[in-house]
Amino acid sequence: MPGFLFEGGGYRHQELLELVEDLGGSLLQVRVVGTEVTVTFFVPEEDVAEVEDLVRDLQGKLKRLPLLGSEIAVVSPTITRHHLPHPLCDVAEYLRREGAKTNMIGLARGPGQRICQISVEERRLIEEHDAAVFVLGNFEYCLREHKWRLFKDLSVPVVVAGGPELPSLPHAFSYISGLGRLPYRTRTFTEIGKLDEVARAVERALEERRRKLSLDPPLLSPLVLKGEIENRLEEVRKCGAPLPVTPRLVGVRVKLPHSRFARVLAGLEVAGYRLGEIAEIRRSVMRDYILVDLLPLSRLELPEKGLRAISGRAEV
């Protein structure tokens, strides 16, 4: 389902919320500030025209968010002022405006040529995301001969942004030139166009992952799981973290302590099963959060036969 952002007045916005639910869509976030409201949501592709008609009647703005429902790691070799590329924040913010939930990560020993390295914990943290964007420097020899070692063993697709004009980099899904260690923030149309190239490369990488996941899908959609957790777990609604249940391509990230709520989540009844039966619940490297990875149908050991995956409730 495609994702969208609605921006408009708070008056009559409840009609949009009801329409999304009636169409079988999913509300991701609703924010009301004064008289203005922003709504991020998913709806089936065949019902987009009906949503657009209502938005015109409400005199609001509707923007398609191709990266909505994904979590992206934006990685820098280090966070020190000598090596942190200035465009890193611009890349992260641009991906957020395209719908992605981004987390910025600075490696402990990523700078240099022969000494650059990535630790096991850093690799695990990056692999919790759906894709990674590495923002590297300006030296062609450094990128071509050494920097690929930082991401060569990652299991998620990697988009690399750097300064030199290169056709590609080893082990990278895509390489975008013109975004290296700039001494200023991106301002010109050309530089902003490079940010759009990064976003489109990430979009292609996510589409490829979605195609692979569709060959052996989970029992239910991560968006459905997000709604079930928010409706059934009161502690989530009281959590002060932004987007306390963050959807990912393969599941959700629940921003509650693993030590206290992992067993609670495992016993939660979803689609007629305990969540621990249809998903792997594990501790996140990030702040002791909980990762819920939905298992594909081929790995489920359930008594029912002929089970198939749909967007909502399980059917046999």
Descriptive labels:
alpha/beta; Rossmann fold; 316 residues; 32% helix; 10 helices; Alpha-Beta Plaits
Q: Briefly, what is this?
A:
The protein contains ten helices and 15 strands.
Task: Annotate the secondary structure layout.
Layout: E1 3-9, H1 13-22, E2 26-33, E3 36-42, H2 48-58, E4 61-65, E5 71-76, H3 87-97, E6 101-106, H4 120-127, E7 131-135, H5 140-145, E8 158-161, E9 174-176, H6 189-215, H7 222-232, H8 234-238, E10 245-247, E11 251-254, H9 258-266, E12 269-270, E13 273-274, H10 275-278, E14 279-283, E15 290-294
Parallel strand pairs: 5-6, 5-7, 7-8, 8-9
Antiparallel strand pairs: 1-3, 1-4, 2-3, 10-11, 11-15, 12-13, 14-15
Helix pairs in contact: 1-2, 3-6
What would CATH call the class of the largest domain?
Answer: Alpha Beta
Secondary-structure class: alpha/beta
* Separation, N- and C-terminal Cα atoms: 23 Å
Helix content: 25-40%
Strand content: 15-25%
Give the helix tally.
Answer: 10
What is the H/E order? EHEEHEEHEHEHEEHHHEEHEEHEE
Shape descriptor reads: globular
What is the name of the CATH architecture of the largest domain?
A: 3-Layer(aba) Sandwich
Q: Number of DSSP strands?
A: 15
What's the CATH topology label of the largest domain? Rossmann fold
Radius of gyration: 21 Å
- Kindly report the average pLDDT value: 87
Count of discrete domains: 3
Unreliable spans: 310-316
Q: What spatial order of strands do you see in the largest sheet?
A: 6-5-7-8-9
Profile the largest sheet: 5 strands, parallel
